[in-house]
Design goal:
The complex is a heterodimer of chains A (152) and B (797).
Chain A lengths: L1 E6 L2 E6 L6 H7 L18 E4 L2 E4 L12 E3 L12 H8 L9 H14 L5 H8 L10 H12 L3
Parallel strand pairs in A: 1-5
Antiparallel strand pairs in A: 1-2, 3-4, 3-5
Chain B lengths: L7 H8 L22 H5 L15 E7 L5 E7 L1 H5 L3 E5 L30 E2 L5 E7 L2 H9 L2 E6 L36 E9 L2 H7 L2 E9 L11 E6 L5 E5 L4 H12 L6 E4 L16 H11 L3 E4 L2 H7 L6 E9 L5 E13 L5 H12 L8 E9 L13 H19 L3 H6 L31 H12 L7 H4 E2 L2 E14 L9 E8 L5 E5 L8 H13 L6 E4 L17 H28 L7 E3 L2 E3 L5 E3 H11 L6 E7 L7 E11 L5 E11 L6 H20 L29 E6 L22 H13 L10 H12 L1
Parallel strand pairs in B: 1-12, 10-11, 14-15, 19-20, 26-27
Antiparallel strand pairs in B: 1-5, 2-4, 2-6, 3-5, 7-15, 8-13, 9-10, 9-12, 13-14, 16-17, 17-25, 18-19, 18-24, 21-22, 22-23, 25-26
Classes of the chains: A alpha+beta (152), B alpha+beta (797).
């Protein structure tokens, strides 16, 4: 079947199988910042944004994205123009193994886009959708707060 | 030149790093240098094993056993083989039986050779029965469902103590398994048996005024690295087998698999890309053997990746243990004798059985000075998923038991827990009495402690947590919540820096035209920041920017050998190799620059990407590179070096915890954690803090929530991330940590390890804090609400 959606602000017409997950479709298209960690939405490393909201792509069917705007980590920054969250994660030492980092950054972006100056508790709540085994969440929370406190 | 490897004094001279620069004089070492690969990962660029796919690849899947112990009587694979899109279906009948161990360690392998790629007997729920390679993962799954297996179900052992009963079934009754003489006793279900003693136990206990005994239990827990085990294998254009795998031990994988696959080592190349977390779980050959076999059978590239459910049921875990301490204490509060008796299970296979448990003894008995020590251990087979290497490697178990035991003794003696420990903890010059006996499967190398910042860690930590509040009865109560009680607990910690006399790392460094350097090594950054730390070490020596060091690791074809990432060894051991290689290259640079500047090389300084004379005349590294590569006496400025150490350089730490216990429900809330570490000279404080933060959160789960639970017939009850609770961002306590400035002469720039010690302390500190809060002593973890509530009920009866 065919679906029409936008990925990182680019309109795409895709031929997909009815049972294919959004995760599978995105990885096949080369959006490799989307990671596999579990198959039931509990670890969160497959997170992408759908119309600005965090969704777990491993438990979302690709067909559900029809007509929506998907944002992956590749869509928010480049080497030349990284997103402030990407810069802050690097500067704060918040990237360890890095496997959950794209999902953490997207979860933080979804928060900051709605609420540019969250407190620590709000940041922690937003990041709680992603499991991390390396950082104890300390430096990732610091990184998000740096951006939140550093202006818009 | 002969290497005096049996003479620690000589070896110390060889591996000692001269005083050199003070922390203030160093440019790069000790600084918060951002990770070299952090931006790449933050941008989501391809980096991990699964991010690079050959043009056409088959998907491999494993059929796992539904029984904890059974013989495979018949397997019918005809329907699976007939399914379109299936390229291979393998059972034990298709594979030459060569017993090996999945544990990736140095030669000779200390773990028993008790595993086959596929076997006619299954020993845990999740054990391998068959494997399939197909065009898509879906077809592979369909093929698995078409395999018909007839089992003869055997009696099952799940509980540790049951393995030693006389009528227990023998889990490894095969004739062709093997292990160390006197250590490996499979007919008794013993994967590893070991006893060591120093001094005189009889006179040690006779000297004691009091003898304290305690039994402690710790659970089987999971690594939960976010990237599952994943591996891609293919035959290259020279018909060599390439294994690209998320492995901590590429060189061990090549060496161990060669005889199992029936290939010479030289026909195997193992490539380690970026690893998405390992924590010891990837010090294990879990997929490479079967994936490679599917490639050899089909001639095609094959990809295999575990699901999260497979990670729980068919990967590795931390060895559960029952630990018994018997400690003699003199009237003045000093310890005169100590025995640790350990019973552990390795599950169905003996991966790391001897060495993990050996390390429990070698650290738990090394923290307090005592000449009379005894360590006895039995590691038994059960029909549980196998245990293996996991961050801390036996020490979180040992230090949980030890540090709760020490707290109990302090309470009995009426001493402050800190004061009792202070009277006993090790001092500079002390030699660990069991060092020779506990050498990780062979003879160890006793030598004296040369640095410790433990006293400072404890003093500052106590101040930060407000230790004096323990004496304030008012503070214990929470206003308007009479059912809550507050408490403070602590633990002191010791770990290792590499395995003396065994671990070796190599490094290669070459200079490019623009004055940059390629640095290649076999060490494997599994998320710790090791690549950056090793680049910092090279950069400090070469006087160039860290960005001018291009790191490549690890690839058995291209990089020098390294034992891999384990035993907190990369900074200490592999870092030693990088420093030596950089010093050689620096000397070569000075030779060229000396000719250019007409100054004796030993008068020159490397600084800011230049070589300077004492009069601040200089040439750039680029000019030196062009001179050496193109102009005069042309040669490649390059060096390869390796490093091993016999030295005993343990890091130390103090862990403090503040808890609130709900006496009505048994719920324990950890409010604050304070951690102070002596890791010698920290090479990168951000990296050290990152290790502390992650280690503490792992130990918090160990103490409070994580435990693999089994039914009586060996089925895992909570093999998913909903029922197995890993702490999330909004559940974490407030964390504070600090690094005390130290220096150990046996580490590069004075560095010791920092990677594992943070996983050792939260569990005992929080259990001690629970006692402080409510006077109830738990001797097992995790401290779930039910367990705490039951303990409260028992105490109040």
């Amino acid at each position: 079947m065919e679906i029409c959606l936008s990925i990182n602000r680019e309109e795409r017409l895709l031929e997909i199988q009815p049972g294919e997950t959004l995760f599978e479709v995105l990885r096949h298209l080369g959006y490799l910042g989307v990671k596999h960690g579990c198959e039931d939405g509990s670890c969160g490393v497959c997170a992408v944004l759908l119309d600005g909201q965090v969704i777990h792509s491993c438990i979302s069917l690709a067909v559900q994205a029809e007509g929506h705007a998907i944002t992956t980590i590749e869509g928010i920054g480049t080497y030349d123009h990284p997103h402030p969250l990407q810069t802050a994660f690097v500067a704060a030492g918040a990237v360890q193994c890095g496997y959950c980092t794209p999902a953490m950054i997207l979860a933080a972006k979804a928060l900051l886009d709605k609420n540019p100056h969250p407190g620590e508790a709000e940041v922690r709540e937003a990041l709680s959708s992603v499991l991390c085994r390396c950082t104890g969440y300390l430096k990732p929370v610091e990184a998000v707060l740096r951006v939140a406190q550093g202006g818009d | 030149m002969s290497r005096p490897y049996n003479d620690p004094d000589q070896m110390l001279k060889m591996s000692e790093h001269p005083e050199g620069l003070s922390p203030d004089e160093m440019r790069v070492v000790g600084k918060r240098v951002p990770r070299l690969d952090a931006m790449k990962l933050a941008l989501g660029k391809p980096a991990y094993t699964d991010d690079f796919m050959p043009p056409s690849v088959l998907h491999g899947k494993i059929l796992h056993s539904p029984h904890a112990h059974a013989l495979i009587k018949r397997i019918d694979t005809s329907k699976a083989r007939a399914l379109p899109g299936v390229h291979a279906v393998l059972t034990w009948q298709d594979i030459k039986p060569v017993r090996f161990t999945t544990a990736g360690q140095s030669h000779p392998l200390p773990s028993p050779l008790d595993t086959l790629i596929l076997d006619s007997k299954v020993r845990f729920v999740g054990d391998r029965v068959a494997a399939v390679a197909a065009d898509t993962p879906e077809i592979a799954e369909q093929a698995l469902a078409l395999i018909k297996v007839e089992y003869e179900v055997l009696p099952v052992i799940v509980e540790i103590e049951d393995a030693l009963k006389l009528d227990a079934p023998v889990i490894h009754d095969e004739q062709d398994c093997s292990g160390f003489e006197g250590v490996f006793l499979p007919q008794k279900n013993i994967a590893a048996h070991f006893v060591a003693e120093a001094g005189s136990m009889a006179s040690g206990y006779a000297e004691a005024d009091c003898i304290f005994e305690g039994e402690y239990r710790v659970p089987q827990v999971q690594h939960v690295a976010l990237e599952p085990h994943v591996c891609i294998t293919w035959l290259d254009e020279d018909n060599r087998l390439v294994i690209r795998s998320s492995t901590q031990v590429p060189f061990h994988v090549r060496r161990i698999l060669a005889p199992v696959l029936g290939l010479p080592d030289k026909r195997i190349r193992v490539i380690k890309p970026r690893i998405g977390g390992g924590f010891g779980g990837k010090q294990e050959i879990l997929l490479e053997d079967i994936c490679a076999t599917l490639t050899l059978v089909t001639g095609k590239a094959v990809r295999m990746e575990y699901t999260r459910a497979e990670e729980f049921s068919a990967a590795r875990s931390r060895h559960p243990q029952i630990l018994r301490f018997k400690t003699g204490v003199r009237r003045d509060g000093t310890i005169s004798a100590m025995t640790l008796s350990l019973l552990a299970t390795t599950g169905a296979y003996g991966s790391h059985a001897l060495t993990v448990q050996g390390n429990t003894g070698s650290k738990a008995l090394a923290l307090y000075r005592c000449p009379n020590l005894r360590f006895e251990m039995d590691v038994v087979y059960t029909n549980r998923p196998p245990a293996g290497a996991m961050r801390g490697y036996g020490v979180p178990q040992g230090l949980f038991a030890l540090e709760v035991h020490m707290d109990e003794i302090a309470t009995e003696l009426g001493l402050d827990p800190i004061e009792f420990r202070r009277r006993n903890w090790v001092q500079i010059g002390d030699v660990f009495a069991l060092a020779e006996a506990l050498g990780e499967g062979r003879k160890g190398f006793p030598n004296p402690l040369r640095s410790t910042g433990l006293a400072e860690c404890v003093e500052r930590g106590a101040q930060m947590i407000g230790w004096e509040r323990r004496r304030d009865p008012e503070w214990r109560n929470v206003p308007s919540k009479p059912y809550l009680r507050r408490g403070l607990g602590m633990a002191v910690l010791i770990h290792g820096s590499g395995i003396p006399g065994i671990d070796m790392g190599g490094a290669y460094l070459k200079m490019n035209d623009d004055g940059s350097f390629n640095l290649m090594f076999g060490a494997t950054d599994l998320g710790t920041g090791a690549d950056t730390v090793l680049a910092q070490i090279a950069s400090e020596v070469l006087g160039c920017a860290v960005e001018d060091i291009i790191v490549y690791a690890a690839d058995t074809d291209l990089t020098p050998f390294d034992k891999g990432a384990y035993a907190s060894s990369t900074t200490f051991v592999s870092g030693g190799a990088v420093k030596k290689a950089a010093e050689k290259v620096a000397a070569m640079i000075k030779n060229v620059a000396g000719r250019m500047l007409e100054t004796p090389p030993d008068k020159l300084q490397l600084e800011d990407g230049c070589v300077f004379t004492p009069d601040r005349e200089g040439v750039t590294l680029r000019e030196v590179a062009l001179e050496s590569l193109h102009l005069v006496d042309q040669h490649q400025i390059q060096a390869a070096e390796s490093h091993m150490s016999l030295m005993y350089a343990p890091p130390f730490a103090a862990q403090f915890a503040e808890v609130e216990v709900d006496t009505q429900t048994g719920e324990v809330r950890v409010k604050r954690l304070v951690f102070g570490i002596d890791c010698g000279q920290p090479i990168n404080p951000d990296g050290v803090e990152g290790q502390i933060d992650g280690g503490m959160s792992m130990s918090l789960g160990y103490g409070l929530s994580e435990e693999m639970l089994f039914t009586a017939d060996g089925h895992l009850l909570n093999g998913n991330l909903r029922d197995y609770h890993v702490f999330r961002a909004d559940e974490m306590p407030r964390i504070e940590r600090f690094i005390v400035q130290g220096r150990d002469p046996s580490g590069p720039f004075g560095a010791k390890a920092a990677a594992e010690i943070p996983t050792d302390g939260v569990a005992p500190a929080l259990v001690n804090a629970i006692y402080d809060a409510i006077g109830v002593r738990l001797r097992l973890i995790p401290a779930t609400p039910e367990r705490v509530w039951r303990a409260i009920q028992k105490e109040s009866r």
